[in-house]
Amino acid sequence: MSEIVLNVAGASKRFGGVQALSDVGITIRSGEVVGLIGPNGAGKTTFFNVITGLYTPDAGTFELGGRPYKPSAVHEVAKAGIARTFQNIRLFPEMTALENVMVGRHVRTGSGLFGAVFRTRHFRDEERVITERSRELLEYVGIARYADFKARTLSYGDQRRLEIARALATEPKLIALDEPAAGMNATEKVVLRELIDRIRKDGRTILLIEHDVKLVMGLCDRVTVLDYGKPIAEGSPYDVQRNEKVIEAYLGAGHKAH
Amino acid sequence: MAMTTATAALPTAADDDARRRRHRVNFILLGIGLVVLPFIAQYFGNAWVRILDIALLYVLLALGLNVVVGYAGLLDLGYVAFYAVGAYMFGLLGSSQLTDTFESIKNAFPNGLHTPWWVVIPLGALLAGLAGVLLGAPTLKLRGDYLAIVTLGFGEIVRVFMNNLDAPVNITNGPKGITGIDDMNIFGLNLGQTHSLLGLDIPKVTNYYYLFLVLALFSVLICWRLETSRIGRAWMAIREDEVAAKAMGINTRNLKLLAFGMGATFGGVSGVLFSTFQNFISPESFALQESVMVVAMVVLGGIGHIPGVIVGALLLAALPEVLRWVSGELDLQSISGGRLDAAILRQLLIALAMIAIMLARPRGLWPSPEHGKAAPTPTT
């Protein structure tokens, strides 16, 4: 088996009286696409926010690439190697598409104030590499021709792709996509699926939250199902689809698998 | 319109060359214009050169505030505090204020403290930068309106301090202010005196015009280099979406502090220049009104866009003076039978002008260029 990229065990999070997550674990191996599904309010996004440091967990152990990390500061998590996209796209709307991706390079580069003001050789070299790499990434997700357009002027589907390019720019060990297909029409979904497929084939490891069952079943190697903040099933998409608990969670008791 | 494709708009190499040449010509013309300008203004009276000087000071201030408000998106209503820090620093180091108060300093410097420019300008920047970080540190968690209120308070605190630090030990001379502040002496050239070159008289105001111009151009360069750097992009990312910026691995705490500190340095330098130019400072010069004015310059000109900010600063600095002249020429006071006081009318007209500009151009007079208006409709 290939090496474990992300290993989370016993993650719990409580908001006042609501136990949003209780004892959720997940193991993702290098090169895998793992899906996280569940009905609305099951805690998928909460789990996402916990592993990326946006929410501080009440309990749990977290390991990234074999090393424990503390998901307490968002920027530290990004530095450690998890890049994410957001359910409701969060780009830098007044910056160009290219600049958006260049911001993604921030965490892997190091020029400071001095370099910026005095335009040192190191600064210029680094800046050139940042620009080149960012253009490549725009090309990669297929929106290179919009490089100089402000992010907010891009279409919904292109904004989503830009968000993925920006996440890839941080050279993540794990790329976490929060409902990337939300609000997309059928054609856009096809394009997105191709993109995720390509990212996977290039050896990236992906954690995917998605409502679109077809997309999840087609893309994921393994699926974890959450309901009321608890994991209720885990396995291949085929098995999970036929799991009684999963069917109950989605459709209510009394339905049978076909 | 939607059919205009991005490829069709791409400039060819020849176009690029021609544009670069045109730019160069424009730059040279602008340069000559800026050098000659004070002599034209001088012809109409030194008061007009003085207006130019003050306008350039405001350009410096607005450029600095633009780093904080425009790039990092942190609304700072107490910016004038840094101006005050720089001004008072030179006020103390370049006048007899300290030697008059402290016997020990007088003994150490029997000829008085006349700190040279190459110490004072960097020191002013440094001190103001530190004050900026000090202000930034406790306000890191605050955003928008809340940040504005706290910074506003900070600005007032500094002013009140300057106003009251004349007892028990007289440091700032309180509301009476500090007088007799040195003129700058750069490489043996005393900027306070009238010099003569090729039969042309170069008075004090013109000397300072060139000093301010050099520093303003230098500031433009620094701002532009910051804007197009890794740091600048990170600032803008924080402005656009702080959560997303964090998720991209940006340490928002450090970068916000850096923005506060960096913006404040410009304020500190302008403060030094202000005090040497006026030879006199008092807390009155650093009232809330000034902070509001600088914010207005940045917003009115085009937030986050250097040329816009410069235009905003020049316009709002010059407008009152022009209106002063207009209302004087028309003699509105006697036309209205004494009901309209010229000074009040001036403020009214400035307010009207600002409202008109914001209605007509909500993103500022010269906002950053809008890309993608003719975005090709995506096909795939």
Q: Brief description of this entry?
A:
The complex is a heterodimer of chains A (258) and B (380). By secondary structure, chain A is α/β, with parallel strands linked by helices.
Overall description:
The complex is a heterodimer of chains A (258) and B (380). Chain A is 39% helix and 24% strand. With 258 residues, chain A is an alpha/beta fold. A six-stranded mixed beta sheet of chain A has the order 6-7-8-3-9-10, sandwiched between helices. In chain A, strands 2-1-4-5 form a four-stranded antiparallel beta sheet, covered by helices on one side. The model of chain A has no long low-confidence stretch (mean pLDDT 91). With 380 residues, chain B is an all-alpha fold. In chain B, 68% of the residues lie in helices and 3% in strands. In chain B, the strands form two sheets. A two-stranded antiparallel ribbon of chain B has the order 1-2. In chain B, strands 3-4 form a two-stranded antiparallel sheet. Chain B is globular.
Shape of chain B: globular
Please summarize the sheet with the most strands of chain B.
2 strands, antiparallel
> Could you tell me the mean pLDDT of chain A?
91
Number of helices of chain B: 16
CATH architecture designation of the largest domain in chain A: 3-Layer(aba) Sandwich
**Which residues of chain A form runs of ≥5 with pLDDT under 50?**
none
Return residue spans of chain B where pLDDT drops below 50 for at least 5 consecutive residues. 1-8, 372-380
